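TASK: fixed-backbone design
INPUT:
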């Protein structure tokens, strides 16, 4: 299949670009993961999570697994946001029960000043090979989403030496307030690395890209704009907007970022992801025609009984509302969770969710 061809099911791309669609598309953050027994088996064969990420064939295998089970409207590259700082020489490893760690976190000024952006086609070649492999395997069925962490989120890991969410962000925030020059240097280099990384994914076959700002919500109002939002805007300014004649939509997701919705909408992205703390209908009124919205079911709702899962899916769809557009519904909403799916989620409830989103949204103008 030539790269220039749109996928047979291009509903996701249309919705992200706010074009009319037949139904609301759905995909799930972390849709290829430990809640699927087949994923656990592939990971066991890989020997470790990092081995799985760095093997293009196995990364392709797990990327496709949820699409074999559920009628999802997109595949998302299986990888990890920390591959970028790993390629910058920080020494990523995963400790049992403790999550990701770095052997060489950024603490000393001389180390920070020497930080450089890696060449994604060299130091992250395995990711590009995985993107190309997945595109071939999809055979033009649904779009492939590429992604990266935001500079601020990556910096949290790079400075803390592990997951910032497991701490009070003391080390990284101390640097932010005490040595903003060093923090800005880290973020500047990382923004260049992320821009290059996402563009390389687009050139390798990604048809939409997403920036995960997982820890942006930990910042103060002023600090968010200076140390997170500004650098995501810099990335978007340098991002390829089309490839092989096709538009490549971009999504920005700041967990806990509902208060900055208007500001995020103005940085040049095509869609803004929302967690479950923001009402979709109110968000739609706030952004108007500027961007599409993605979200925003609470992942914990998937542990409820099947009828409650379906009811929550309908509630989210009805919150966004529907517009009739000549037999279609106006695009602008991509159904997703408000954060990544839990590893303990019953797969059968995911099927109910996906099927409900499709069936309920097909009612189009019957929703108000």
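OUTPUT:
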């Amino acid at each position: 299949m030539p790269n220039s061809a749109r996928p047979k099911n291009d509903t996701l791309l249309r919705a992200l670009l706010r074009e009319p669609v037949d139904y609301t598309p759905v995909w799930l953050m972390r849709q290829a993961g430990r809640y699927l027994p087949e994923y656990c088996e592939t990971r066991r064969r890989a020997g470790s999570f990092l081995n799985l990420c760095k093997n293009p064939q196995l990364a392709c295998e797990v990327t496709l697994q949820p699409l074999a089970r559920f009628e999802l409207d997109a595949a998302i590259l299986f990888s990890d946001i920390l591959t970028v700082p790993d390629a910058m020489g920080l020494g990523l490893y995963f400790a049992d029960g403790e999550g990701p760690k770095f052997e060489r976190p950024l603490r000393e000024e001389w180390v920070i000043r020497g930080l450089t952006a890696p060449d994604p086609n060299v130091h992250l070649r395995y990711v590009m090979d995985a993107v190309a492999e997945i595109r071939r395997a999809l055979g033009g069925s649904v779009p492939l989403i590429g992604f990266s962490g935001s500079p601020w989120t990556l910096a949290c890991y790079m400075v803390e030496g592990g997951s910032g969410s497991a701490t009070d962000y003391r080390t990284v925030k101390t640097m932010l307030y005490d040595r903003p020059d060093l923090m800005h240097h880290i973020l500047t280099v990382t923004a260049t690395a992320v821009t290059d990384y996402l563009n390389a994914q687009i050139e390798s076959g990604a048809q939409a890209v997403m920036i995960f700002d997982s820890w942006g919500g930990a910042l103060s109002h002023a600090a968010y704009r200076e140390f997170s939002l500004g650098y995501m805007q810099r990335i978007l300014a340098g991002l390829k907007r089309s490839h092989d004649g096709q538009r490549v939509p971009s999504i920005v997701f700041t967990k806990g970022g509902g208060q900055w919705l208007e500001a995020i909408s103005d940085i040049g992205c095509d869609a803004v992801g929302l967690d479950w703390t923001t009402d979709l209908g109110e968000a739609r009124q706030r952004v108007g025609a500027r961007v599409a919205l993605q979200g925003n079911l609470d992942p914990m709702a998937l542990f409820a009984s099947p009828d409650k899962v379906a009811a929550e899916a309908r509630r989210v769809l009805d919150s966004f509302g529907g517009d009739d557009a000549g037999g279609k519904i106006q695009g602008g909403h991509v159904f997703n969770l408000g954060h990544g799916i839990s590893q303990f989620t019953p797969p059968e409830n995911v099927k109910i969710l996906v099927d409900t989103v499709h069936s309920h949204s097909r009612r189009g103008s019957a929703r108000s």
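COMMENT: The chain is about 45% helix and 15% strand.
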